[in-house]
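Q: Could you fold this chain for me?
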Amino acid sequence: MAYTAIDDPELYFQVKTYTGTGSSQAITLDGSEDMAPDLVWIKNRESARAPVLFDSVRGAEKRLVVSGADTSSTDSNMLTAFGSDGFTVGSSNEVNESSDGMVAWNWKAGTTSGLTGGTLTPTAYSINTTSGFSAIAYTGNASAGATVPHGLGVVPEMMIVKSLNGATDWNMYHQDTHSTPEDYILVLNTSAIRADNNTSWNDTAPTSTVFTVGGGGDTNVNTNTYIAYCFASKQGYSKFGSYTGNGNTDGPFVYTGFRPAFVIFKKSDGAADWEQVDDQRLGYNPDQNYFNCNEAFAEQTGDIIDLVSNGFKIRGDDSSGWNKDGGEYIYIAFAKAPFVNSNGVPCNAR
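A: Sure. Below is the predicted structure, expressed as C-alpha cells.
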C-alpha cells in the first residue's frame, strides 16, 4: 500500500515565523534538511501591511501584492535574495518591520530546463514534479485557445495566474470551484463569488501537459507578461478539495491524508473572504489565528479550525466565512507530515 508520495514534506514546503528587525536579515528555515525556496509569501502578523509574494522565476526584489491587483514592482527593501535554506529580507515593513512578528510560507520547485509544448513559450520557469508545483512566466498573445506548458506531467488541480505589467486580478482555477471548473474563476484578491468567465481558461480543462487561456481578460492580453503557479495534489503532501458547511460549531471534518501545516479555504458559491491558517502561529487547537488573503489586515483571532493528524475540522458557525449551512467551500492544504509514512509509521497529532 502506498501511504504517501513524500515522507518529509519539509523538503518542499515550510512555514517560517520570525521577528522583524527593520534592517537586512537572513531568514533560515527550520526543517531538518535544507530547502531552497522558489516561492515565498510573507505577511506581517501585527500590522495592517499587505501580504507580498516573491518567486525565483521573476527574481529577488520582484514584489507582487496578494491582496491587490497591483503590477509587479521592484523593491530593493523587500525580499533581496533567495538562499539555499531560506531568504534574505530588507527593511520594508511588509517583510521586516522592527519588533513585529512575521510569517513566511515557502515552496520549493527547482527544475529550470527541458520544458516543451504549448503555443505560448515560457520565458522562464521552475518545476518540481515530485511535489506537484511549477511557476511559469509567459507573454500573452490575445489568441483564444492559446496553451501554456506547466511541466507537472499530470493534470493541475489548481492554478493561479497574475499579470505582471497589468493591474488585473489574481485569477484562480480550482478543480472543485464548480462541476465544470474550466468555465469559472475565483479571484484571490477579492471576496467575490465564483464567476462564469470564458476568457480566463477559454472554457477548456487543463491537460497533463498544458493549460489553456482565452483571448484576453486577465490571462492573455497581447504582449502582457504573466506568472502562473500550478499545483497537482500528491498523496500525503498536498490536496485541493472541497467541503460543505453545516452551520454548526461542530463543523465538518475534512480528510486530507496528512497533518496540515497550511490551509486556505474560501466559500465558492457566495461572497466571502479567503481564510488562511497554519500550524506555527498558534501551535495548538482550535487554531484561532488566521489571515484573509484578500485583505491587508493584521492577524485575526476566532475559533476557526482544528488541524489534526489526518486532516482538519472546521470549528465555529460563521455564516459566510467558513461554515454556512449548505455552503460550498474549496480548500488548499499542504502537509506537516503524512498521516502514515512509507514505512507504515503514523504521524502524531498536534
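A (continued): The longest strand covers residues 328-338.
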